[in-house]
Amino acid sequence: MMPSPNPGAVPVGDTTDLLRATLEAVAPGTELRGALERIARGRTGGLIVLGFDPVVDSICSGGFELDVPFSATRLRELSKMDGAVVLDFERGRIVRAAVQLLPDPSIPTSESGTRHRTAERVAKQTGHPVISVSQSMNIAALYVHGIRHVLLDPEELAARASQALVTLERYRARLEDVAANLTALEVEDLTTARQVAEVAGSQEMVWRIGQEIADVLTELGTAGRLLRMQFDQAISGIEQERSLLMRDYVVHTPKGAGPAGDAADAAPAQVAHQGTTDAPTTGERTASAAGERAASAAGERTASAAGEETAPTSGDQTPTTPTTPTTPDDAVARALAALAALEANALIEPEKVALELGLIDSPTAIETRVRPRGHRLLSAVPGLDGPTAEAIIARFGSLQDILGAGLEDLRTASGLDRQRARTIREGLSRIAETATLERFV
Fold first, then answer.
1. What is the model's pTM?
2. CATH 3.40.1700.10, applies to 15-151
């Protein structure tokens, strides 16, 4: 059974996922890729539809019906005849051969050759991937909806992946540096929106580079096994790191609300005040005001773009309201979506990143003090599970309060015995001392 890239397994509307699944199905080392390479070497050309349903059947004319198991040899021999070959990928069988495909001629196409024009139109009309192997140029092009993707040689793909991995490792090293600096400042209660934005921007850049490399490695298939190992090591933990940063500074779990927090409560990190009784400064009030709208900012922009929020007409009795996150996970997803919407050059500008996350409401407020809740630091404590960390954060509300808590307070908040609470306390102290020392080494 071959891996199925057809719309029965992947939603037709999700072009990116369908393209990725199809590239995996035709990657070097697969039987289908072997057949394509044989067709290209034979210079006979070929047109192959990777899916069969009533829509595909309706545009097939002539040829003959088959229902035989797929093999690279069969596909190669059948492609010597004029006409297209239709595969049923769900069942791993060849169902049509030497057929003339008659897609809707009104479907727009940017191709000039007859075979490629037909391939693009069939892909758009049926939603199934189509492969066109050029007889003269000796290349294979994959059509998925409106996307044309040329299948490259494994050597060229490996070279691209290797070069991208060098870039990824360089950006990852930069991320480690700014993240270590942020941790040290968190321990000293000196964090500003600038440092948070620098880490968030670096994380997003690493994530984007990783996604591009993952696509290349998917297309490379088994030929990229060693590169895949190197990539997995370089990208390890980045997804969790992004989530923890957002939970520290964007997603709010109210103090004393319990591990899950208030489902409807989402706001940026609390501002760090110099004293418990001092009134907040102008900058702090600004950050606090920006904080009240942080988690919903990205969602409101998205809803506006999608037309989800519309002004009520005179006859409307109930005005529409913006959609707000219902869980911390929703708020994290919206914050990350806001970062994903930024241009690459904006990610190196802390002011733009901080504005997008709602940490500030003006570029001039980039030095506003902010205080983490403790997700990042607690995640580094050996043996401390997620639910216990959430309970501690919900009890104390901020990293500084956690670091200043006594042994008995930690024991009560975590629900653990005295020995386990002491282990957590010692682990926090070691991490805090190490972060401070590394900042000056």
1. 0.73
2. yes
